[in-house]
Amino acid sequence: MYVITGATGHTGRVIVEKLLAEGKPVRAVARSAEHLKPLAAKGAEPFVGSLEETAMARAFSGAEAVYTLVPTPLTAPNVRASQNRIGEALATAIAKARVPFVVNLSSVGAQLSEKVGPVTGLHDVEQRLNRLEGVNVLHLRPAFFMENLMMNIPMIKNMGINGTPMKGDVATPMIATKDIAAEAAERLLRLDFKGKSVKELLGPRELTMTEATAILGRAIGKPSLPYVQFPYGEAEKAMIGMGLSPDVARGYIEMYRAFNDGIMKPTEQRSAKNTTPTSFEAFAEEFAAVYKQ
Ligand SMILES: NC(=O)c1ccc[n+]([C@@H]2O[C@H](COP(=O)([O-])OP(=O)(O)OC[C@H]3O[C@@H](n4cnc5c(N)ncnc54)[C@H](OP(=O)(O)O)[C@@H]3O)[C@@H](O)[C@H]2O)c1
To answer: Where would one find the signal peptide in this protein (predicted)?
Structure first.
């Protein structure tokens, strides 16, 4: 049995579908029964539950391998403490259910314990899972998700600009989430990792936000779409206005600052091993299809 948490999200859904396509038994975990229905229709066993210890010990029972992630709790008064609670619950459930293999979704920058916003919580979760004796754990550390830019569609439509607090000229790796899922599914099928290990996933190439905006602009028929770097203070206020807790907003600003200051970056040189196939231009076509809906 494979157990996939975050099964209705970007990475989890694709992993579930790939494992089912290989004829594997899969338990799909999320809180929304409604969102799990399409996966159940494809043959997954739905498990409705929150990422806390009692539910996860049941969800993980009989699992040969689990895929774990720690969603960013957007309204938490203390984001790192919340992430640590989820990490602790996952670790305890893995130990109780005696799961031998774990693929854990982490992030580029998770080697750092400070100054990288919500990624510091993922650092803590990596450390916690690494303390599990006799469990093989592979941490996947992907770059900035291309799909994050989908959130900017209303801004592009309403204000005619694309913007984030990231500097326009900082080149950073960006990855398509389906490529993270492909790596996770392959490693879950092969179960070829021993002990504790890390794999960075860096997308096809580094891109600046100005370059990314130009590619998106061309795909949606707005070739002169400008990129604007938002001031930290204004962006933080806007995030709070959208319902994020002050601590989460502070954390995201810290993370953008870390990108801009060159702190939040991969530890490895780009290579065939950490390069993933989906180009930003291919993602831009998906972006344009959503934009035009
Ligand atoms: N965005 C980036 O650039 C980036 C880069 C590197 C790493 N990451 C990491 O990627 C992760 C997100 O992965 P993703 O994009 O695949 O997921 P996602 O699309 O954000 O979806 C989250 C999934 O988790 C489930 N979920 C949320 N809260 C839950 C809870 N309390 N208990 C049980 N299930 C819960 C959701 O379903 P329900 O709501 O139905 O429960 C959904 O299936 C985060 O840990 C983030 O730090 C993100």
So the answer is: none
